[in-house]
């Protein structure tokens, strides 16, 4: 790795004004971020609907940053921090792959600068304060049964999804049913990702709804008189983290909401830092165009995030085979017919990007068993769907040198005229927004409303919460059911629960059989981890 001071200098920042964490990473205080408006252009990386094999958005984002530098552009990367849950579970690390990674890789995937621990601590401390207020009667009409604020953990632990707390009696109470979510789905994680500064962070934390009184009044964190304590816990977590790619290019790694159960984007502050210090900023939206990208536009941009100038849609031939009907064990086998069928999903992803007013470039993330015929099918489908270009991406095997063609296409794309359009108006109402998403993004014929969801939606509207919708659903299908591949149509979009995240300013709509705390597989990645005698972390995948 380059000395971190060299990376800082490349951005035009003063190392003395930053906060080093060891020798290879620094935090950037908000006052050290250059002011006066961003000069760069933002590129958002999204993808086709994910498959069990993965599409490589993070690897492509890192490789694109290196490729832009290779052709002489000042590029800065802004991505999310990986979660410990998938790292030790089944998915593995989230720092890229091959020659397109961010460093120090082990630190970034593990404790990094402690941001996740701070967010988890703040979240669970607020839960303790809500329990204490309900037990002591500090807020009139607020009983334990009215608490809606769940705790979080960064471990994949299915035993905590539904629990009973306070079973030891009144001294240990209150007794109530509750559960845990994964910390990436924490509202405080979303708030840190969306806050513009400390003043905004304070307001958002104050607005968190922790439960309801018996007469249907929301109880906010401000009423628990602990927002100051939360601010102290989150003091450093709001500062973005600066590291580098394996080729020495600046990489800002900050916050980590999941794209299927949260809004799935790195922080607004990270994007602003990247744009203020680079000619081109590359960021990633979690999962496919129907999830992370839609939320990037309708949540992040709506709440003050910088507007992108272009989007990269990542596709793999393996993924197109999957969406065309190939079996899990046959994804490495050439199958031109399956690719032809599966290309419908690629066309759909490009269509979603263009519906938001952005020019699209397709990156075909290259695997060794891809055939020229299959690549040509994907390229032709992309161009027919309106992509400006469709090129092979070889960042995994070749680093920046294998990404120059994509980099050139992206440079051309950001110079194209774009007119950002959001999907719905703020005042469209909960029903209208969800029905629009179901029809326009998920290709459903209609929406089915589960028990109490209509009542909950009306309650939210009565409180004036004209927030964007954050759909929590499977990432493996455009529909709410993971076994429906390609571009399923003729289905009904099921809303089973609605939650309010008033501090993050979004309504969370749980669709279909979605869980907000994953469980470990029978053979988790954690079994392969160890610390070598030289202090090296082993088993990171």
Describe the fold and architecture.
The protein is α/β, with parallel strands linked by helices and 541 residues long. The chain is 33% helix and 18% strand. Strands 1, 2, 3, 4, 5, 6, 13, 14, 15, 16, 17 and 18 form a 12-stranded mixed beta sheet that branches. Strands 19-21-22-20 form a 4-stranded mixed beta sheet. Strand 5 (96-97) and strand 6 form a beta hairpin. Helix 5 (115-136) packs across helix 6 (187-194), helix 11 packs across helix 12 and helix 12 packs parallel to helix 13. The chain starts with a helix and ends with a strand.
DSSP E strands, number: 24
Largest sheet: 12 strands, mixed
From the spread of the alpha carbons, the general shape counts as: globular
Q: Write down the overall mean pLDDT.
A: 95
Question: Helix/strand/pairing class, anyone?
Answer: alpha/beta
* Computed Rg: 23 Å
Determine the fraction of residues in helical runs and give it as a percent range.
Answer: 25-40%
Low-confidence residue ranges: none
Tally the helices: 17
- The proportion of residues in beta strands is 15-25%
> For the terminal residues, how far apart are their CA atoms?
20 Å
Lay out the secondary structure.
Elements: H1 4-10, E1 19-20, E2 26-27, E3 41-47, H2 57-70, E4 75-79, H3 84-88, E5 96-97, E6 100-103, H4 105-109, H5 115-136, E7 151-153, E8 163-165, E9 176-178, E10 180-182, H6 187-194, H7 198-207, E11 209-212, E12 218-220, H8 227-233, E13 241-245, E14 250-253, H9 268-277, E15 280-284, H10 289-301, E16 310-315, H11 317-323, H12 336-355, E17 360-365, H13 372-384, E18 389-393, H14 395-398, H15 404-414, H16 429-440, E19 446-449, H17 453-462, E20 469-472, E21 492-501, E22 506-511, E23 530-531, E24 537-538
Parallel strand pairs: 3-15, 3-16, 4-14, 4-15, 7-10, 16-17, 17-18, 19-21, 20-22
Antiparallel strand pairs: 1-2, 2-13, 5-6, 6-13, 8-9, 11-12, 13-14, 21-22, 23-24
């Amino acid at each position: 790795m380059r000395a971190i001071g060299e990376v800082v200098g490349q951005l035009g920042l003063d190392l003395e004004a930053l906060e080093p964490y060891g020798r290879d990473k620094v935090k950037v205080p908000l006052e050290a971020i250059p002011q006066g408006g961003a000069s760069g252009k933002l590129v958002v990386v999204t993808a086709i609907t994910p498959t069990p094999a993965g599409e490589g958005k993070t690897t492509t984002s890192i490789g694109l940053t290196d490729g832009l530098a290779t052709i002489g552009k000042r590029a800065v990367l802004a991505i999310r921090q990986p979660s410990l849950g998938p790292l030790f579970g089944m998915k593995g690390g989230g720092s890229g792959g091959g020659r397109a990674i961010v460093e120090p890789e082990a630190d970034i995937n593990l404790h990094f600068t402690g941001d996740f621990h701070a967010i988890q601590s703040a979240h669970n401390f607020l839960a303790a304060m809500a329990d204490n207020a309900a037990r002591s009667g500090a807020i009139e009409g607020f009983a334990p049964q009215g608490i809606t604020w769940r705790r979080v953990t960064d471990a994949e632990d299915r035993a905590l999804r539904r629990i009973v707390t306070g079973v030891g009696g009144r001294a240990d109470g209150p007794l109530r049913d509750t559960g845990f979510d994964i910390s990436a789905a924490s509202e405080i994680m979303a708030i840190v990702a969306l806050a513009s500064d400390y003043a905004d962070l304070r307001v958002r934390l104050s607005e968190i709804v922790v439960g309801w009184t018996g007469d249907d009044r929301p109880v906010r964190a401000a009423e628990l008189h602990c927002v100051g304590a939360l601010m102290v816990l989150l003091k450093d977590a709001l500062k973005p983290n600066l590291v580098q790619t394996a080729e020495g290019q600046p990489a800002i790694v900050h916050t980590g909401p999941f794209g299927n159960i949260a809004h799935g984007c790195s922080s607004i502050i990270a994007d602003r830092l990247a744009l203020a210090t680079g000619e081109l900023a590359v960021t990633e939206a979690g999962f496919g165009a129907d999830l992370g990208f839609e939320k990037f536009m309708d949540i992040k941009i709506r709440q003050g995030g910088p507007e992108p100038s272009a989007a990269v849609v990542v596709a793999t031939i393996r993924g197109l085979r999957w969406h065309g009907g190939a079996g899990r064990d046959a994804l490495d086998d050439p199958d031109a017919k399956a690719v032809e069928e599966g290309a419908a999903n690629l066309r759909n992803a490009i269509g979603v990007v263009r519906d938001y007013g952005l020019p699209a470039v397709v990156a075909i993330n290259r695997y060794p068993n891809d055939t020229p015929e299959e690549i040509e099918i994907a390229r032709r489908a992309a161009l027919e769907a309106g992509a400006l270009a469709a090129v092979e991406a070889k960042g995994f095997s070749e680093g920046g040198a294998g990404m120059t063609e994509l980099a050139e296409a992206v440079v051309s794309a950001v110079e194209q005229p774009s007119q950002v359009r959001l999907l719905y108006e703020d005042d469209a109402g909960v029903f209208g927004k969800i029905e629009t998403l179901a029809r326009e993004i998920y290709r459903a014929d209609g929406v089915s409303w589960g028990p109490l969801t209509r009542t909950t939606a009306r309650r939210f509207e009565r409180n004036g919460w004209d927030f964007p919708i954050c759909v929590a659903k499977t990432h493996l299908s455009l529909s709410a059911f993971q076994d429906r591949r390609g571009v399923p149509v003729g289905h009904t979009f099921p809303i089973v629960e609605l939650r309010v995240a008033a501090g993050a300013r979004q309504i969370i709509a749980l669709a279909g059989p979605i869980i907000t705390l994953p469980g470990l597989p029978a053979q988790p990645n954690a079994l392969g981890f160890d610390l070598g005698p030289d202090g090296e972390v082993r088993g990171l995948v």
